[in-house]
Amino acid sequence: MTRCNILLISLLLLATRPGSADPPKPEAVKPDVKPLLALVDGKVETEIKSLIGLYTHFHTHPELSLHEVESAAKIAEELRGLGFTVTEKVGGTGVVAVLKNGPGPTVLVRADMDALPVTEQTGVPYASKVRTKNREGIDVGVMHACGHDIHMANLIGTARVLTSLKDRWAGTLMLIAQPAEEIGAGARAMLEDGLFKRFPKPDYCLALHSDALAKIGTVRYSEGLALANVDTVDVTVYGRGGHGASPHTTIDPIVLASRIVLDLQTIVSREVNPTDPAVVTVGSIHGGTKHNIIPNEVKLQITVRSTKDTVRDHVLKAIDRICKAAADGARAPAPTVKVNLDEYTPSTLNDVALTRKTIAVFREILDDKNVIERPPIMGGEDFGRYGREGVPIFMYFLGTIPDDRFAESERPAGKPLPSMHSDSYAPAPEPSLRTGVRTMSMAVLNLMKK
């Protein structure tokens, strides 16, 4: 072989090596969203004024968990008018709306409806003035302090967009308005009432949640674990009452309950692996009626958060053990320790493949800097129950705070943002709804496109 031939072969081999001219890897291919996004944006523009009106209606007419009668009726009316087959009173006040549009996947979009027993202090013109009795018969204010009013208006906005673009997608669209998320009971009630048996079982479940700590135009998300297990524990500590001047003749349940509150803190600090997140918070302690009377009992209300089922089991057993051991040491009657399984909420685990597929679209819509991955948090959401039924789920978090307010909170000594459930939480309706309807509509179209 001549030297020229060797040189020619070497050049040919170099030309066929992988290099900058290689085709992009599959994960680097970006979805082409511009044609559909233009259609979605056009529809959002025509609907935004009406959607703000719906949001204001929901905000001024909040209803507590399991009492979402007016909210459910309004949503059912809106979706029925768009051509959905609507079933009401699923799992109590839940609404299921189904729209079949040829063969294809079934995609469920969920919004929750219930408000909180909070007296609003936002100062907005449409602030809630509603008052009612809670489950204990106590008079309380009622407020959408968790953004469920945004969720409901967003569901209707997404429905309007998708029904206007039926020629662009195929499959079955299933929209649900769920009750009682705030007490962890709504998803379970709807599932037990046949949500995935009486109606098509979805191939995918999507939801968004208002974010009180993120600015408008942004979304935040987590791959895999997003939200924690949530348990509610009620403890009644018993003693022997008597005169406050003669404590030696009593068994003081206030002292005993105080000891239990402190001892409970050792569960996370000394019993749980430091790499496994867990929270034990005593949120309420009630006992006694007068300065000089030692009562017969004290009641504790405890919330427990965990990310692993094994940790959850350990913490709940430890609470029972510590409460009973403290009572035994004080020669007091055994306390009652009740884990309220009706309000148990399992952790929310976002399906990784569905998350990545959806986030790729969001990055094209909002730009990379506005799509932010966040670590899991110890809050809870019963949306996770749908994932426990074997359906891939994805929940993302919608920024709702105006730019100037967010910037102020970032400054040294700036005014902090109110958290979810705060009486001062006031999302910016128009930009929040624009981003919410755009992202959710495009997420669905990405799963159901022809």
Automatic annotation (TrEMBL):
Entry-linked Pfam families: M20_dimer, Peptidase_M20
Chain positions covered by the region annotation Disordered: 407-433
Database matches in SUPFAM superfamilies: Bacterial exopeptidase dimerisation domain, Zn-dependent exopeptidases
Cofactor: Mn(2+)
Claim: Transmembrane is one of the keywords in the record: no
Annotated binding of Mn(2+), by residue: C146, H148, E182, H209, H421
Signal sequence residues: 1-21
Peptidase M20 dimerisation domain span: 229-327
Keyword Manganese: yes
Listed GO biological process terms: diaminopimelate biosynthetic process
Alphabetized GO MF terms: metal ion binding; N-acetyldiaminopimelate deacetylase activity
Details of cofactor binding: The Mn(2+) ion enhances activity.
Keyword entries, A-Z: Hydrolase, Manganese, Metal-binding, Signal
Gene3D superfamilies in alphabetical order: 3.30.70.360, Zn peptidases
Name of the protein described by the UniProt record: Amidohydrolase
Native source species: Limnoglobus roseus
